[in-house]
Amino acid sequence: MADTALLVIDVQNVYALPESPLCVPEFDESLKRINALIEGFRAVGKPVIYVRHVHRADGRDAGRMFDFSGAAEPVGFVEGSAEAEYVPGLKIVPDGLHITKRRYSCFEGTELEAILRSLAVNTVAICGYMTNFCCETTARAAHDKDYFVDFIADATGAPDLGEGYRQSAIIQAVCTTLGAGFARICETETYLQAMR
After folding, report:
1. CATH number for the domain including 123?
2. Which of 20, 38, 106, 116 is the most exposed, fewest CB within 10 Å of its CB?
3. What's the pLDDT tens digit per position in 33-43?
4. Do the Cβ atoms of 3 and 121 come closer than 8 Å?
5. How many domains, the chain?
6. In terms of pTM, does the model score above 0.85?
Protein backbone atom coordinates (compact mmCIF):
# COMPACT_ATOMS: atom_id res chain seq x y z
CA MET A 1 0.00 0.00 0.00
CA ALA A 2 3.02 2.30 -0.12
CA ASP A 3 1.92 4.02 -3.32
CA THR A 4 -1.85 4.07 -2.82
CA ALA A 5 -4.30 6.98 -3.06
CA LEU A 6 -7.85 6.95 -1.75
CA LEU A 7 -10.55 8.02 -4.20
CA VAL A 8 -13.61 9.31 -2.34
CA ILE A 9 -16.24 9.25 -5.06
CA ASP A 10 -19.45 11.32 -5.11
CA VAL A 11 -20.20 11.55 -1.39
CA GLN A 12 -22.95 14.03 -2.21
CA ASN A 13 -26.32 14.93 -0.72
CA VAL A 14 -28.30 13.34 -3.55
CA TYR A 15 -27.41 9.93 -2.06
CA ALA A 16 -28.29 10.87 1.52
CA LEU A 17 -31.54 12.82 1.24
CA PRO A 18 -34.53 10.57 2.10
CA GLU A 19 -36.69 12.22 -0.59
CA SER A 20 -34.09 11.61 -3.31
CA PRO A 21 -34.77 8.81 -5.82
CA LEU A 22 -31.07 7.98 -5.46
CA CYS A 23 -31.12 7.70 -1.66
CA VAL A 24 -28.75 4.93 -0.53
CA PRO A 25 -30.05 2.52 2.13
CA GLU A 26 -28.07 2.64 5.40
CA PHE A 27 -26.21 5.68 4.12
CA ASP A 28 -24.88 6.66 7.55
CA GLU A 29 -23.18 3.28 7.95
CA SER A 30 -21.32 3.46 4.64
CA LEU A 31 -20.39 7.09 5.37
CA LYS A 32 -18.83 6.04 8.71
CA ARG A 33 -16.64 3.55 6.85
CA ILE A 34 -15.70 6.14 4.21
CA ASN A 35 -14.68 8.57 6.97
CA ALA A 36 -12.67 5.83 8.68
CA LEU A 37 -10.78 5.24 5.44
CA ILE A 38 -10.13 8.98 5.05
CA GLU A 39 -8.78 9.17 8.59
CA GLY A 40 -6.68 6.05 8.06
CA PHE A 41 -5.10 7.38 4.88
CA ARG A 42 -4.50 10.77 6.51
CA ALA A 43 -2.86 9.12 9.54
CA VAL A 44 -0.22 7.41 7.41
CA GLY A 45 0.34 10.35 5.06
CA LYS A 46 -1.30 8.86 1.95
CA PRO A 47 -3.22 11.06 -0.50
CA VAL A 48 -6.97 11.50 -0.26
CA ILE A 49 -8.68 12.63 -3.48
CA TYR A 50 -12.31 13.76 -3.36
CA VAL A 51 -14.27 13.51 -6.60
CA ARG A 52 -17.67 15.15 -7.11
CA HIS A 53 -20.10 14.79 -10.00
CA VAL A 54 -21.42 18.18 -11.17
CA HIS A 55 -23.19 19.52 -14.29
CA ARG A 56 -24.20 22.91 -15.66
CA ALA A 57 -27.90 23.61 -15.20
CA ASP A 58 -28.45 23.86 -18.97
CA GLY A 59 -26.92 20.42 -19.53
CA ARG A 60 -24.32 21.55 -22.09
CA ASP A 61 -21.71 19.37 -20.41
CA ALA A 62 -23.97 16.34 -19.80
CA GLY A 63 -23.60 14.53 -23.11
CA ARG A 64 -25.53 11.23 -22.89
CA MET A 65 -25.69 11.23 -19.08
CA PHE A 66 -29.40 12.08 -18.96
CA ASP A 67 -30.68 10.84 -22.32
CA PHE A 68 -28.78 7.55 -22.57
CA SER A 69 -31.92 5.64 -23.52
CA GLY A 70 -32.99 8.14 -26.18
CA ALA A 71 -35.51 9.91 -23.94
CA ALA A 72 -34.31 13.12 -22.29
CA GLU A 73 -34.45 13.28 -18.49
CA PRO A 74 -33.91 16.34 -16.28
CA VAL A 75 -30.24 17.18 -15.69
CA GLY A 76 -29.09 16.16 -12.22
CA PHE A 77 -26.13 17.01 -10.03
CA VAL A 78 -26.54 20.66 -10.99
CA GLU A 79 -23.73 22.99 -10.00
CA GLY A 80 -24.67 25.02 -6.92
CA SER A 81 -27.63 22.82 -5.99
CA ALA A 82 -27.94 21.24 -2.55
CA GLU A 83 -27.99 17.73 -4.04
CA ALA A 84 -24.58 18.21 -5.66
CA GLU A 85 -22.81 19.40 -2.50
CA TYR A 86 -20.72 17.15 -0.29
CA VAL A 87 -22.65 15.49 2.53
CA PRO A 88 -22.18 17.62 5.68
CA GLY A 89 -20.84 14.63 7.64
CA LEU A 90 -18.04 13.87 5.16
CA LYS A 91 -14.59 14.24 6.70
CA ILE A 92 -12.60 16.73 4.62
CA VAL A 93 -8.86 16.67 5.30
CA PRO A 94 -6.97 19.95 4.87
CA ASP A 95 -4.54 18.62 2.27
CA GLY A 96 -7.12 16.59 0.36
CA LEU A 97 -7.32 17.14 -3.39
CA HIS A 98 -10.66 17.92 -5.06
CA ILE A 99 -11.73 17.01 -8.59
CA THR A 100 -14.98 17.63 -10.46
CA LYS A 101 -16.19 15.10 -13.01
CA ARG A 102 -19.05 14.99 -15.51
CA ARG A 103 -19.11 11.30 -16.38
CA TYR A 104 -19.24 8.05 -14.42
CA SER A 105 -15.49 7.50 -14.57
CA CYS A 106 -13.31 9.72 -12.38
CA PHE A 107 -10.71 9.63 -15.16
CA GLU A 108 -12.89 10.85 -18.04
CA GLY A 109 -12.28 14.52 -18.76
CA THR A 110 -10.51 15.18 -15.45
CA GLU A 111 -6.96 15.75 -14.25
CA LEU A 112 -7.02 12.61 -12.05
CA GLU A 113 -4.44 10.64 -13.97
CA ALA A 114 -1.99 13.56 -14.06
CA ILE A 115 -2.40 13.96 -10.30
CA LEU A 116 -1.84 10.27 -9.64
CA ARG A 117 1.29 10.25 -11.82
CA SER A 118 2.64 13.34 -10.05
CA LEU A 119 2.16 11.57 -6.71
CA ALA A 120 3.85 8.37 -7.98
CA VAL A 121 0.68 6.41 -7.18
CA ASN A 122 0.30 2.94 -8.66
CA THR A 123 -2.76 1.79 -6.68
CA VAL A 124 -6.14 3.41 -6.14
CA ALA A 125 -8.47 2.49 -3.28
CA ILE A 126 -12.08 3.17 -4.22
CA CYS A 127 -14.96 4.12 -1.93
CA GLY A 128 -18.13 6.17 -2.32
CA TYR A 129 -21.28 6.13 -4.43
CA MET A 130 -22.71 4.52 -6.48
CA THR A 131 -21.19 1.06 -6.29
CA ASN A 132 -22.49 -0.01 -9.70
CA PHE A 133 -21.99 3.24 -11.61
CA CYS A 134 -19.20 5.67 -10.75
CA CYS A 135 -17.26 3.37 -8.41
CA GLU A 136 -17.36 0.36 -10.73
CA THR A 137 -16.68 2.43 -13.86
CA THR A 138 -13.69 4.10 -12.19
CA ALA A 139 -12.33 0.73 -11.05
CA ARG A 140 -12.50 -0.64 -14.58
CA ALA A 141 -10.93 2.52 -16.05
CA ALA A 142 -8.12 2.46 -13.49
CA HIS A 143 -7.38 -1.17 -14.36
CA ASP A 144 -7.28 -0.30 -18.06
CA LYS A 145 -4.75 2.43 -17.24
CA ASP A 146 -2.59 -0.15 -15.45
CA TYR A 147 -3.28 0.88 -11.87
CA PHE A 148 -3.84 -1.70 -9.18
CA VAL A 149 -7.34 -1.30 -7.74
CA ASP A 150 -8.52 -1.91 -4.18
CA PHE A 151 -12.33 -1.82 -4.15
CA ILE A 152 -13.53 -1.25 -0.59
CA ALA A 153 -16.91 -2.92 -0.95
CA ASP A 154 -18.54 -2.00 2.37
CA ALA A 155 -17.54 1.65 1.92
CA THR A 156 -19.61 1.92 -1.26
CA GLY A 157 -23.36 2.12 -1.66
CA ALA A 158 -26.15 2.14 -4.21
CA PRO A 159 -29.89 2.73 -4.19
CA ASP A 160 -32.02 -0.36 -4.56
CA LEU A 161 -33.07 -1.13 -8.13
CA GLY A 162 -36.64 -2.07 -7.34
CA GLU A 163 -38.00 -4.65 -4.91
CA GLY A 164 -36.11 -7.53 -6.48
CA TYR A 165 -32.63 -6.08 -6.58
CA ARG A 166 -31.45 -4.58 -3.31
CA GLN A 167 -28.22 -2.79 -2.45
CA SER A 168 -26.61 -5.91 -0.97
CA ALA A 169 -27.19 -7.85 -4.19
CA ILE A 170 -25.87 -4.97 -6.29
CA ILE A 171 -22.67 -4.76 -4.25
CA GLN A 172 -22.23 -8.54 -4.41
CA ALA A 173 -22.69 -8.64 -8.18
CA VAL A 174 -20.27 -5.75 -8.80
CA CYS A 175 -17.64 -7.23 -6.50
CA THR A 176 -17.94 -10.69 -8.02
CA THR A 177 -17.21 -9.29 -11.48
CA LEU A 178 -14.51 -6.84 -10.42
CA GLY A 179 -12.83 -9.47 -8.25
CA ALA A 180 -12.62 -11.84 -11.20
CA GLY A 181 -10.34 -9.59 -13.24
CA PHE A 182 -10.21 -5.92 -12.28
CA ALA A 183 -9.68 -5.33 -8.57
CA ARG A 184 -8.88 -6.68 -5.16
CA ILE A 185 -12.11 -6.69 -3.13
CA CYS A 186 -11.65 -5.48 0.43
CA GLU A 187 -13.57 -4.61 3.59
CA THR A 188 -12.89 -1.40 5.50
CA GLU A 189 -11.71 -2.76 8.84
CA THR A 190 -9.40 -5.37 7.32
CA TYR A 191 -7.98 -2.78 4.96
CA LEU A 192 -7.31 -0.30 7.75
CA GLN A 193 -5.63 -2.96 9.89
CA ALA A 194 -3.28 -3.77 7.03
CA MET A 195 -2.35 -0.06 6.74
CA ARG A 196 -1.36 0.32 10.40
Report:
1. 3.40.50.850
2. 20
3. 999 999 999 99
4. yes
5. 1
6. yes
